[in-house]
Amino acid sequence: MSAPHPEVGHRLTIAYRGTEFFGWQRQAEHRTVQECLEAALRKIWGTPIDLQGSGRTDTGVHATGQVASFVAPRLHAAHVVVRALNANLPRDVRVTKCRLVSPAFHARFDAVGKTYRYLIYNDLVQDPFKLDTHWHIPLPLDLAKMRRAARFLLGEHDFASFTSNPGYKRPRGTVRTMRRVTIARHGPELALRFTASGFLYRMVRNLVGGLVKVGLDRLSVEDFGRILRAKSRSEAPANAPAHGLYLASVNYPPTRSRP
Fold first, then answer.
1. Residue-by-residue DSSP string for the chain
2. Taking 90 as the threshold, does the pLDDT of residue 6 lie above it?
3. List 50, 58, 110, 142, catalytic entry
């Protein structure tokens, strides 16, 4: 009789196009990224496996660097796990990397920061191939003003003005540390990147909505700073649509992710 395989942690890096998903978290009667991945894991291991994501993404939101973890018997080398999962996944979600890690590793609780990217197509005519991946803004945007407003976000702040009600209690409150914000243009495409210790519900979409108002000269740079200090969602503009948002990467302490 062969000895049972020892259990090991598996850390997955995942990319998905969120257009046809009702977000990350499994939901009854709705197609979600977590549900698709857990179905593939069940085929490979032959038993239900609970997959833990680094965080939720909403309906229509994409990811290039979502991270998830699970504990299971060590059946395959990491590169074989990647190949096996992708063979059992729909084409709008892909596992790009797998690392075998300590069973104590947890994709959500061990995360120390995240980066989100938001894409805008800033041209008079929308590119039809970017309908579900970029927010189309046909009017000129003043990037200099947007960058000046973005400087207010750096450092530790209470971001209550730029979050929506998630429908549950926030155990960590609404204070977060914004480490970096960049706004770059490549032709008609505009990319906004936000790196922080953590993000609140719809925080990036709300920030982008405010920064775009500044870029359109419908909100002054000074008023953007005032809205941040007000700590009240009722003071802020409407949020940006979900389809321009991407979870780009999740950061972990290096010692937590070693096999």
1. -PPPPPEEEEEEEEEE-GGGSS-SS-BTTB--HHHHHHHHHHHHHSS----EESS---TT-EEEEEEEEEEEE--S-HHHHHHHHHHTS-TTEEEEEEEEE-TT--TTTT--EEEEEEEEE-SSS--GGGTTTSEE--S---HHHHHHHHGGGSEEEE-GGG----SS--TTTTEEEEEEEEEEEETTEEEEEEEES---TTHHHHHHHHHHHHHTTSS-HHHHHHHHHHT-GGGSPPPPPGGGEEEEEEE--GGGS--
2. no
3. 58
119 and 106, same domain (yes or no): no
Over residues 115-164, the pLDDT tens digits come to 999 999 999 999 999 999 999 999 999 999 999 999 999 999 999 999 98
Number of domains in the chain: 2
pLDDT band at 166 (very low <50, low <70, confident <90, very high): low
158 is catalytic: no
Q: With CA atoms as reference, report the closest residue to 118 among 258, 248, 252.
A: 248
- Is 74 among the domain residues? yes
Boundary (domain end) residue, out of 85, 110, 135: 110
Which of 74, 94, 110 is the last residue before a domain boundary? 110
Domain that holds residue 166: 113-249
**Which of 23-27, 127-131, 147-151, 168-172 has the least mean pLDDT?**
168-172
Q: What is the pTM of this model?
A: 0.92
Digit-coded pLDDT (tens) for 95-108: 999 999 999 999 99
